[in-house]
Design a protein that fits this description.
It is a single chain. This protein is an alpha/beta fold. It folds into four domains: about 5-215, P-loop containing nucleotide triphosphate hydrolases (Rossmann fold, 3-Layer(aba) Sandwich); about 215-275; about 280-500, 3-Layer(aba) Sandwich (Rossmann fold), CATH 3.40.50; about 505-535 and about 550-615, Helix Hairpins, CATH 1.10.287. It contains 19 helices and 18 strands. A six-stranded mixed β-sheet has the order 5-6-7-3-8-9, with helices on both faces. A hairpin with a 2-residue loop joins strand 10 and strand 11 (about 305-315). Helix 4 packs antiparallel against helix 5 (about 135-145) and helix 18 (about 555-585) runs antiparallel to helix 19. The radius of gyration is 30 Å and the shape is globular.
């Protein structure tokens, strides 16, 4: 396979902090690599160097294969707020459209519209300044995917996306033959898209073929082997130390090289592998929780002509863990602001026609009642993060060096200004400010954005034992599956459904339901066509010659019956394969095979449904 990218001896430091030093690696055609590392260790810096927006401190070499097309997805997409979605994409795509004839430009435009539709951006003329953060990310992804580049380099592609968009993206990338390097913390996404995990650890690069589970296992083996080798060196060092300490008379005759080797051994013996991790043991847990948490009775909420909540009634229980999912803009964050009382009476009121029985306390109009328990102490981790003063230091934000050290802010970082922290470090500091308040109702709105995988695992373990109630809005399916008891599904237009179970169980339920609906629709369509044909025959006027009744040939009838069986069989096979993918336990070779088979099933289904409709028309 062709080598798409070769890296040799690149380094990056900020002041005294060394992110990585003289690292190198190779990416071949067809590799789909997930780059993972703790926050603040240089993932985004490496991506910027590859994109040509930063330079290696040590020179080194970055060599892309000549003539391959490369598309970059950065965390922050630069755009003109006054341009429409379509114009923004086209004006930013000159490197992909330069030199193309008009026919190929039209083809590119058709791909842009197709991906916008897949990402539920159905108005290409909408201005960029009117979009949410998740919608801007979908525009950036559309521009990248429509380019049909040979090599995609992506920094946190799932951040700010809703789950529908993530599932479309992972399906597309899983089936694509593209080469891929991406930074991600989404473990399900990683497993379903990537065939290699590349870890940046203590300034070095380690590569593991296979899925996330294989990475965890092989990483533990690497660390165990390293520490076992250290133990061997210590034993040798002990014997050498006995030799060095032997009689002074004997020491004078010792070889100088052996004495020098002793000090080399001493250095190696001190190198035990340790990884600093966020410690949740410092958190004292939740303040005592009363019997009343938050009681919602017939709550509706409108803004302009849009309904975000319609007649919602629910009493939150002690110690329950609720997940909230739904498309961007469906009202999830609005709901959290309502139940916490974050919408205040001085905000603008609209939609006076909805006002008669309104309890006015937000932008728009709310009807119904929301009651909060007297002992309730809310910790609300906002999606937008904390509004830090960039000139403040870490110690200005949290004046507790012991707690800061437990959250991986060592002494040398305490006087760092906030503006110098990475996105993940800012999120980790913000999380600390929430947890140290000891809330008994913890609300987390997209907590997984910018947090590294190690921190996520530790946070999950802490939340499983959290001694209060928990409400989570998240697009991270792994995070939801590990924590929640049930889900509120925000379906749009104010409709909220309650589903008891994990997110993966919900998706499996939806897929089975949709397959059943398709089967019923086909059966109904067939019955309607048969009924229409009978009515037409019955109403046919009498003629001197009897009218021949149009019907399928024997061969066509058998074909129709077989098509119906085939479609049911394909739907069942697709559901079973998707369940295997959702399990997260497939080895890489099986994962690739299953993904490719699902792609073929979709193609076969389209072909067979088209032929089925043709036969129905002849009934």
């Amino acid at each position: 396979m062709a080598s798409y990218l070769q890296i040799e001896n690149i380094s990056k430091s900020y002041g005294p902090k060394v992110l990585f030093e003289k690292i190198g690696f190779n990416i071949n055609e067809g590799d789909k690599i997930a780059l993972i590392a703790p926050n603040g260790t240089g993932k985004t810096s490496l991506m910027r160097i590859l994109a040509g927006k930063d330079k290696s401190d040590s020179g080194g070499k970055i060599m892309f294969l000549k003539d391959i097309r490369i598309a970059f997805l950065e965390q922050e997409y630069e755009f003109d707020p006054e341009k429409s979605i379509f114009d923004q994409i086209m004006s930013s795509s000159t490197e992909f459209t330069r030199g193309l004839d008009q026919e190929h430009i039209w083809e590119y435009e058709r791909r842009v519209i197709k991906f916008l539709t897949n990402f539920n951006l159905n108005n290409p003329d909408q201005l960029m300044k009117e979009l949410s953060g998740g919608e801007v990310k979908r525009v950036a992804l559309t521009q990248m995917l429509a380019s049909e580049a040979d090599f995609f380099i992506m920094d946190e592609p799932t951040n700010h996306l809703d789950i529908d968009a993530i599932e479309f993206l992972e399906g597309f990338l899983g089936r694509s033959r593209c080469t891929l390097l991406m930074v991600t913390h989404d473990r399900y996404f990683l497993d379903r898209v990537c065939n290699t995990v590349m870890e940046m650890d203590h300034g070095a690069i380690y590569t593991y073929k296979g899925n996330y589970q294989n990475y965890l296992e092989k990483r533990e083996e690497r660390i165990a082997n390293y520490n076992a080798e250290t133990d061997k060196v210590r034993n040798i060092l002990r014997r050498e130390l006995e030799w060095i300490r032997s009689t002074p008379c004997a020491r004078t005759g010792k070889a100088r090289y052996r004495i020098n080797a002793f000090y080399d051994l001493k250095d190696r013996a001190s190198q035990v592998y340790t990884q600093k991790q966020v410690s949740m043991e410092a958190m004292k847990g939740a303040t005592r929780l009363g019997t009343k948490i938050v009681n919602c009775k017939n709550v509706s909420f409108y803004y302009g002509d849009k309904c975000y909540l319609d007649g919602f009634t629910y009493n939150f229980q002690r110690y329950e863990k609720v997940g909230i999912v739904g498309r961007n803009g469906a009202g999830k964050s609005t709901f959290l602001n309502l139940i916490t009382g974050n919408y205040t009476p001085d905000m603008v009121t609209e939609m006076a026609e909805y006002k008669p029985v309104a309890s006015q306390n937000g932008p728009g109009v709310m009807t119904g009642t929301i009651e909060r328990g007297e002992s309730l102490k809310v910790g609300y981790y906002h999606q937008s993060g904390m509004a830090f003063n960039p000139d403040d230091t870490v110690l200005d934000i949290v004046n507790d060096t012991w707690l800061l050290n437990r959250f991986l802010f060592p002494h040398e970082m305490l006087n760092n200004k906030i503006e110098k922290l990475s996105g993940g470090e800012k999120r980790r500091l913000y999380l600390l400010t929430i947890l140290m308040q000891q809330p008994n109702l913890l609300i987390l709105d997209e907590p997984t954005n910018d947090l590294d995988i190690v921190t996520l695992n530790i946070l999950e373990e802490y939340l499983k034992e959290f001694g209060g109630s928990l409400i989570i809005v998240s697009h991270d399916r792994h995070f939801l599956d590990k924590l929640v008891d049930h889900l509120f599904i925000f379906c749009g237009d104010g409709l909220v459904k309650d589903f008891v179970g994990s997110y993966s169980e919900y998706r499996e339920f939806i897929k089975e339901y949709e397959a059943e609906q398709r089967s019923q629709a086909r059966a109904q369509e067939k019955a309607e066509k048969e009924k229409a044909a009978k009515e037409a025959a019955k109403n046919q006027p009498a003629t001197s010659e009897p009218v021949r009744k149009k019907k399928l040939s024997y061969k066509e009838q058998r074909e129709l019956e077989q098509l119906e069986k085939d479609l049911d069989s394909l739907a069942a096979e697709k559901a079973e394969l998707e369940a295997q993918l959702n399990s997260g336990s497939l080895p890489y070779d099986k994962l690739q095979t299953v993904s490719e088979r699902i792609g073929r099933i979709l193609e076969e289904t389209d072909e067979k449904e088209l032929r089925l409709l043709e036969l129905y028309e002849n009934l």
